[in-house]
UniProtKB/TrEMBL annotation, chains A, B:
Top EC class, one word: transferase
SUPFAM superfamilies: ACT-like (SSF55021), Carbamate kinase-like (SSF53633)
Name this polypeptide is given: Aspartokinase
Family: Belongs to the aspartokinase family.
GO biological process: diaminopimelate biosynthetic process; homoserine biosynthetic process; lysine biosynthetic process via diaminopimelate; threonine biosynthetic process
GO molecular function: aspartate kinase activity; ATP binding
A Pfam family recorded for this sequence: AA_kinase
Catalytic function, reaction form: L-aspartate + ATP = 4-phospho-L-aspartate + ADP
CDD domains for the chain: AAK_AKii-LysC-BS, ACT_AKii-LysC-BS-like_1, ACT_AKii-LysC-BS-like_2
Length: 421, 421
């Protein structure tokens, strides 16, 4: 008997019909002789609708209250899913984040898991029941308040449960067949990957591949959780995300995939005095807002003025609070102005084989140059190169690069109905 | 400084605009120098919509999961209300039933409060914040599960909090101006009562007056909580529900009001063997379902058959489960058939002065007879007489009786938009 954790996103449970379909799938896994734990997201667009309501009653909703509000979404879907399963004659019990022992820090809106104590989940399994856990949410012991893990938090919930329970596999159900060399909605000839290392998956997730969220992949890699990303519309194998153990040889392609990301904005702090510690001052202010900074570029200072510009990218949703925080400290830091650009796109190529293959950067820049695409910022890691372009030509750039690196498949990828997670 | 508990029903918080209006009202009470605790219902029709969803995924939704599902409604409204208040610059904290210490028994769907330990509510008040508490919900300590108090549970939440906190008054906001001699939607010349005893209110609530729920009135009477039923659309005084202390003389009108109730159904257990203990058998079966029985009538047994019929009324929503339970035991009990009638209406006249005034029953029956209205069942208490009629003539009967007892006012009552609670 295996212990399987299954995660279903919002598009898989968007209405009563799809909830019943998911329930059937879960019941089939149970009847095949497995213990099953399910992490579930809010139905369809529930979270966005609740966010809209919050902004209608308050320009800047209180973070504690916002978490209380948003966590109702997963409670609705988990209770409905448990009911649907029970009406098929199989025992099921739903648990909120706090009931499932998802202990987090107190950072409302993007809390981090500090401990997982799934006592009641284990009790449910011991009784032969399927445990349904609300994704995305946790509980802070000190404040006794409900928290949320941020967007994509249901993936993290699933992986954290899989790690804590020692699950054999954590299945992430989505509306595509697995992980692709590029988003099949953008690149028609994108190929499904049968397997990918956790390291590569991490870079893909960080680069805007929405199939898995970065924190979930990080968590899986750190705890050696095997992920299986697969379609909730078929029973085909999807993509296995494997954690490579020390010394193990894995033959890696030079380039695993190309990712595009339109979720970031660029903030430029212009006219920063070129004196020691100013960058530290700025990023201390930014860090206090809880925003996640991605790329940072500091221009060479203009000799005449002894002032420099610092640009960084961050999730669009964090931009407003960072701008507010920086404006409040403008006099202290002494910069001249702030610029906000939300029309940027990020293109990344990822591949473990890059380590041992020089010239990937050159190949990327050449392909973009031939297509007349301008590069505004560059950042690299050991197995990834990312560049910032204008937002409106990002998809075109991804297609160009996918072809340039010889990733195009022979057939077109299947894309199912539904778009979100 | 007074401590005021305010309860707002679903029609007072049906959308973002009305939530902001309620928030303003609460803030005004706080700024007038009072400590304020608020109990809030789910927005508009949320509870009914969630119930519909539950029935779409499961013919007979699991009670534990149903409570988990339904309690999200109040969590949404309380979080939005707290946000709205905070955005007006006043501190506010929302609490779920369990966070507010509403400890109940384990009867999902109609749990009873066994203890109220509002530690966090007190802490919030001590910090100068307004405490917003989710109505309708509680927490069972043994199962560690979330429970609901049944329909009208938000009134009970408000009164229980008022009792536990020693509040000066519990204000119940509604879409009418207070308690009337009859439903102003049915009887145009119904008069608002300035004050009513808790005892009379209890009978009115039990008789279908929807302005206050019976369990809330019971709780208020038992704990000496002063209720003030008033409109959320005006600042006028409403109706004060006073707990009469021992020996206090209150001049009571003979008839306080007339109530109509369309929420009940009648079940007849036909052909019950006329042997000792059969009624006990039947009502033991019914009690196990958790259904609340109202009126009971047992016919004289037909001598030829030694069998009798037992009829009782109960909330329509409980009928199906009671019928199912009885059918399952039909062979054991030995009755012949079950009849289900959901087209009944209940008319009640209530008044503390009835105690010392004979002839009220005769006056009621005469009025109904002159109007050609047939009476199917009768039940009485010390200060109430109720009769069952056909559902379609109930409103007419209420109007006739209101006039017959001289309750008609000189002007028409104001009825506001919105119908529910």
């Amino acid at each position: 008997m295996s212990l399987i954790v299954q995660k279903f996103g919002g598009s898989s449970v968007s209405d009563a019909e799809s909830i019943k379909r998911v329930a059937k799938r879960i019941v089939a896994t149970r009847k095949a002789g497995n213990d099953v734990v399910v992490a579930v997201s809010a139905m369809g667009d529930t979270t966005d609708e609740l966010l809209d309501l919050a902004h209608e009653v308050s320009p800047l909703p209180d973070p504690r209250e916002l978490d209380m509000l948003l966590t109702t979404g997963e409670r609705i879907s988990m209770a409905l899913l448990a009911m649907a399963i029970k009406s098929m004659g199989v025992e099921a019990l739903s648990f909120t984040g706090s009931q499932a022992g998802m202990i987090t820090d107190a950072q409302h809106g993007s809390a981090r898991i500090v401990d997982v104590t799934p006592v009641r989940v284990r009790e449910a399994l011991d009784q032969g029941a399927i445990a349904i856990v609300a994704g995305f949410q946790g509980f802070n012991r000190d404040s006794r308040d409900i928290t949320t893990l941020g967007r994509g938090g249901s993936d993290t919930t699933a992986v954290a449960l899989a790690a804590a329970l020692g699950a054999d596999v954590c299945e992430i159900y989505t509306d595509v067949d697995g992980v692709f060399t590029a988003d099949p909605r953008v690149v028609k000839k994108a190929r499904k990957l049968d397997r990918v290392t956790a390291e590569e998956m991490l870079e893909l997730a960080a680069s805007g591949s929405k199939v898995l969220y970065i924190r979930a992949v990080e968590f899986a890699r750190r705890h050696g959780v095997t992920l299986h990303v697969r379609s909730s519309f078929t029973h085909d194998e999807g993509t296995w995300v494997i954690s490579r153990t020390e010394g193990e040889e894995v033959e890696e392609p030079i380039i695993t995939g190309v990712a595009g990301d339109l979720s970031e904005a660029k903030i430029t702090v212009a006219g920063v005095p070129d004196t020691p510690g100013k960058a530290a001052d700025i990023f201390t202010i930014v860090a206090k807002t809880g925003a996640n900074i991605d790329m940072i570029v500091q221009n060479v200072s203009a000799a005449a003025t002894s002032r420099t510009d610092i640009s960084f990218t961050l999730p669009k949703s964090d931009a407003e609070k960072v701008l507010t925080a920086l404006r409040a400290e403008q006099a202290d830091v002494g910069f001249e102005s702030l610029q906000h650009d939300d029309q940027i796109g990020k293109l990344s190529v990822v591949g473990g084989g890059m380590r041992t293959n020089a010239g990937v950067s050159a190949q990327l820049f050449t392909a973009l140059k031939h297509a007349g695409i301008n590069i505004e910022m560059i950042s690299t890691s050991e197995i990834r190169i990312s560049v910032i372009t204008r937002a409106d030509i990002l998809n075109h750039a991804v297609q160009i690069v996918h072809t340039a690196f010889g990733l195009d498949g022979d057939t077109e990828a299947t894309v199912y109905a539904g778009t979100g997670r």
